[in-house]
Amino acid sequence: MSTDTNKRDYRLTGPESKIALEKGLVAAEWYISLVPRKRLKELMKRRNGPAIRDTILWFCALAGTGFLACWTWGTWWAIPAFALYGIVYSSPADSRWHECGHGTAFKTPWMNEVVYQIASFMSLRPATPWRWSHTRHHTDTIIVGRDPEIVAPRPPVWRIILMDFFRLYGGPKDIRRMIMHCFGKLDEEEREYIPRSEFSKACWESRVYVLLFIGIISWCIVTKSFLPAMLIGLPSFYGAFLVLVFGMTQHLGLNEDVLDHRLNTRTIYMNPIFRFLYWNMNYHIEHHMFPMIPYHALPALHEEMKDDCPPPCRSLWSAIKEVVTALVRQGKDPTYTIERTLPATARPYGFGNDDKTTGGVTYAGS
Amino acid sequence: MPDLEGWIETCAVDDIDEEDVIRFDYGDRTFALYRTEDSEYYATDGYCTHEKFHLADGLVMGNTIECPKHNGRFDYTTGEAKRAPVCVRLQTYPVKIQAGKLFVKIG
Questions:
Q1: What is this model's ipTM?
Q2: Could you give the 3-state DSSP secondary structure of residue B73?
């Protein structure tokens, strides 16, 4: 078992990757709640209806809030109008990117792919690199040195979290990678999880994205107005607030280096508006344990699994309070982890390693 | 034990539901056995070629099997990789039915 008295190294190219492999945490077998196969087959069934309805609703909401934003352009009313447009642009783009990336939103494959490509551009997540990043996230969820989608290290870097409320850390990182792709280069981390056979596709996609951005900038120059960029491109930044809020609730404050999603993932009850924006990803334990269940069946899956899971957070607000409290405590004690008691009906947690708190790693100050 | 031609008995044909898949282990090998909606039978390697997850826990849709972990897809009748993250084709095996039993040629 390795011991490191310094901060852990979250890079995929650092020593933690090898340590995770040695501890048997890489591409490992994860705990799965018992759901009868017959019921799972019912839940896995793909449908086009819900995703077509929700996509139409999303584009109508975009058109409506976009019209409002344009109409108020040049007045103080533009601030709340664009804030609303930004949220309607960014939050569903992120959740549609996610669900269509899994290929479960629509029954018809090309529909998943079309919405995936549009949502990838809108959320500033180049389609191919992020597809593979997310694949790794599902293989090695919150395994340090393996998972490229850990939102905050221990101790947290508040500057980065605050910047990402407006995508000011992650956004420029993605733009830098896109520019590299235009020249046929992938960065070292991306090479860890994108297969060589996909490099060319990643590069061509980035070239298309950059051309689209050049088009938007040119449109701004020709019209001598920021308005085009405020409608396409910039909402990925100024509308990112809720994306980060949702994202922070998924895993932060919970365990690292475990092989049971009940230990490192959070399910939250949310109101219907948030669930529409987030496409039911508030049922996040359920999603990670059974990624082949479409978003519209996750509430039903939750009913099947809840007796085997820790109690969900009762609201987004209670989840955020729990996360922020945990991050503050991790600032002083990086080993701090939220412990959630399982109901009597649940099977015991499967930590998947010997040390039940830190995965065998000693943190600075512990 | 396989017979001289390499066929092994796996299960009764009715052990697999229509448009479904089951797992069959033989020695240290694992296979996925499929039944289509029209009750045609197929066999492939049991693990996804992307990462080591049992395809038998996945979803059968027509001629496609979707891996339960990363949603990669194969045409299980040909083994062709149909959707990322799977890039490598799946090994398929001949099958035959005799006296209500499904046999797979693994040799």
A1: 0.86
A2: strand
